[in-house]
Amino acid sequence: MGKPKSERRLAENEAMAVTRNLRISPQKLNLVAESIRGKPVETALADLTFSRKRIAADVKKTLESAVANAENNHDLDVDQLVVKEAYVGKGLVMKRWRPRARGRIGRIMKPFSRLTVVVKEAEEQA
Known about the structure:
InterPro entries: Ribosomal_uL22 (IPR001063), Ribosomal_uL22_bac/chlpt-type (IPR005727), Ribosomal_uL22_bac/org-type (IPR047867), Ribosomal_uL22_sf (IPR036394). Belongs to the universal ribosomal protein uL22 family. This protein has one domain (14-121): CATH 3.90.470.10. Helix 2 (41-49) packs antiparallel against helix 3. The chain is flat and about 65 Å long. By secondary structure, the chain is α+β, with helices and mostly antiparallel strands. It has helices at 26-36, 41-49, 56-74, and strands at 14-22, 81-99, 105-121.
């Protein structure tokens, strides 16, 4: 007796990829995620390739994973894909400290993030 199969959270013309434990603050990651929202996948990949942000390579890997999921798992047309959603969530925060003057400490927060990318097959425009 297994548990029943859960319903699919996305529509039939959508695919998703999630990357967890990215070592960057959510605020910085959101700047890169914001730059690809709503764009065609081809344009988004080009933007990420030539972006000067360090995290852009990891965002590009996540987007490529979502495209591969769309193609292989859901039989969607890769040329028609658009980035429907790209959102960032908080992960864990490593807490470190550094000695400061007069016996005090300075807290150093090292945050992690989670990135979710949803691609959608756009309808043909005539």
